[in-house]
Amino acid sequence: MNATILVVDDEYRMRKLVGDFLRKAGYDVVEAEDGQGALALLTPAIDLVILDVMMPGLDGWETCRQIRAQGETPVILLTARSEEADELQGFAVGADEYIAKPFSPQVLVARVRALLKRVRWSARNEVGVSEYGRLRIAAGAHEVFWDGKPLELTPKEYDLLCYLAEHRGRALSRKQLLDQIWGYDYFGDGRTVDTHINRLRIKLGEASGFVQTVRGWGYLFEVAK
């Protein structure tokens, strides 16, 4: 069954451009012209949302927050603003990817493909409960706890933590993490990993030391003694 992508943009030409490339790549496409329309169309049948930030009424930031409040449907934000602060805000509201305009439609399709691969990888690993000292990862429930208190992680942060923990004690390069969490077709670089690791550590709080930096290489997960 083809994945279904919800494309949300107030500009018809942009929706058509993105939709046409996605259909050529084999995806089913649903369109909405604003945030309210997107939320009305958001059902379990939607596999991924491509969401423009600058829209009248309910903008992309708030729409993304509400999508994330309803579940873990992957979200790619599109915006004409490429400042680092805006990218960080995108991740803060729960976006999985952030692409600045103008962009290559082929690159966007590659990002979609990579993100859907990540979702499938996550689904294959959603079984069992793992405990690392006071840190508990309940994969079946897609939840992480520290001392019994839940930690609010984005889907990407959760997958990153799970992958690191799954390979406990093994130094993983930034490229390995990009390939496994973002997908082999992802066009980002090591800074993407660093940004997510920094945010993950902040949310882990006392457990932040479990994610250790391997200088000049990447990261490893090890339970602090």
Task: Please tell me about this protein's structure.
- The structure is a single chain.
- The chain is α/β, with parallel strands linked by helices.
- The protein folds into 2 domains: 119 residues, 3-Layer(aba) Sandwich (Rossmann fold), CATH 3.40.50; 95 residues, Orthogonal Bundle (Arc Repressor Mutant, subunit A).
- The protein contains 8 helices and 12 strands.
- Strand 8 and strand 9 form a beta hairpin.
- Helix 1 crosses helix 5 and helix 6 crosses helix 7.
- 33% of the residues are buried.
> How much β-strand is present in the residues?
15-25%
Net shape: globular
Helix content: 40-55%
Arithmetic mean of pLDDT: 85
Give the terminus-to-terminus CA distance.
Answer: 47 Å
What is the number of strand segments? Answer: 12
Q: Profile the largest sheet.
A: 5 strands, parallel
Q: Count up the helices.
A: 8
SS-based structural class? Answer: alpha/beta
The helix-strand sequence is EHEHEHEHEHEEEEHEHHEE
How is the largest sheet built, in terms of strand order?
A: 2-1-3-4-5
Which CATH top level class of the largest domain fits? Alpha Beta
The CATH superfamily of the largest domain is identified as Response regulator
Question: Uncertain segments of ≥5 residues (pLDDT<50)?
Answer: none
CATH topology-level fold name of the largest domain: Rossmann fold
Count of the domains: 2
State Rg: 18 Å
What's the CATH architecture of the largest domain?
Answer: 3-Layer(aba) Sandwich
